[in-house]
């Protein structure tokens, strides 16, 4: 096998690849344990209307602190979970946890309009997803429009027709659909036009050049216009500075999310953040 790859000097597994493979195995085993012992948590990051500063919703983001591995970033463990099939359990767990939290906020009078949950494209292969979601809505009693599902395109959509069908059914139920990380990776213009999404999130990587690079500004402006003309809500992620906020508001980007408002927080801290939050609109 190694020879088929070219010269005889080439090894199939380099020591580094071996290390990475065993890291993945360790991670996968620890993750199985974490899922079984319910050690994953959801943190919530606020999203605010660009013009008024009022709360638009929150995004639920998975957090995992392993007793021996410590903090493992979702970027790492989600990728492993997609390879091992554990993503299936994580997706259902995060949907359930987010809907229960929303029900709790409603009971507590915390006015969070919508919670967004990240799902891998792999979930949309499963035609029972809409039924799972409708049972969850019935069980928790939350209105369908208080849930949005972000298609987080970590992998390519492999069954396009089925993905559209599943997403369409969720939309018909009244659940929001959002295209995450738009403008990078697998998140393409053809997907934006072809998938039944009512929201698009401009990838955080565009925020760094927003203030300083004219071309980046032009691209972001174009994405906002595309989203608008498709009738979608446009969300910018990774907003850290006042100048970015001003530029995005000027471009008529609808919603902003980023450290400028808050980092992702545990549910109780989110409620405290919201209680203390003073929405401020555009000052000029
Ligand atoms: P994402 O869905 O695009 O989430 C936004 C990421 O940007 C989050 O990283 C968030 O903490 C970070 N972020 C938000 N505002 C700022 C900012 O102002 N500056 C900077 N530097 N970063 C900011 P996080 O929580 O590490 O998640 C990384 C990715 O992992 C997510 O990107 C999402 O693709 C994936 N992910 C997280 N939780 C889940 C999950 O439960 N299921 C799935 N399938 N994927 C998840
Ligand atoms: Mg997301
Ligand atoms: Mg995103
Ligand atoms: Mg992103």
Automatic annotation (TrEMBL):
Domain of life: Bacteria
Protein name: EAL domain-containing protein
Organism listed in the record: Komagataeibacter rhaeticus
């Amino acid at each position: 096998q190694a020879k088929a790859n070219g010269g005889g000097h080439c090894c199939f597994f380099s020591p580094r690849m071996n290390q990475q493979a065993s890291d993945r195995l360790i991670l996968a085993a620890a993750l199985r344990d974490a899922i079984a012992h319910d050690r994953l948590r959801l943190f919530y990051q606020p999203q605010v209307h660009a013009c008024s500063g009022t709360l638009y919703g929150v995004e639920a983001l998975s957090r995992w602190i392993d007793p021996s591995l410590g903090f493992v970033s979702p970027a790492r463990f989600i990728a492993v979970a997609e390879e091992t099939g554990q993503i299936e359990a994580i997706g259902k767990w995060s949907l359930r946890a987010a809907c229960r939290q929303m029900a709790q906020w409603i009971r507590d009078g915390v006015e969070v309009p919508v919670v967004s949950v990240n799902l891998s494209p792999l979930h949309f292969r499963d035609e029972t997803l809409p039924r799972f979601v409708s049972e969850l809505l019935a069980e928790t009693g939350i209105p369908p429009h208080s849930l949005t599902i972000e298609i987080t395109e970590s992998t390519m959509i492999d069954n396009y027709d089925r993905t559209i069908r599943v997403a369409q059914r969720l939309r018909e139920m009244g659940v929001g659909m959002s295209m995450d990380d738009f403008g990078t990776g697998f998140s393409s213009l053809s997907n934006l036009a072809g998938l039944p999404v009512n929201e698009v999130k401009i990838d955080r990587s565009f925020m760094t050049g927003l203030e300083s690079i004219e071309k980046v500004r032009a691209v972001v402006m174009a994405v906002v216009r595309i989203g608008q003309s498709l009738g979608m809500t446009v969300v910018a992620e990774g907003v850290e500075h006042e100048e970015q906020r001003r530029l995005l508001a000027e471009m008529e980007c609808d919603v902003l999310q980023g450290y400028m408002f808050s980092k992702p927080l545990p549910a109780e801290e989110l409620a405290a953040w919201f209680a203390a939050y003073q929405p401020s609109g555009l000052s000029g």
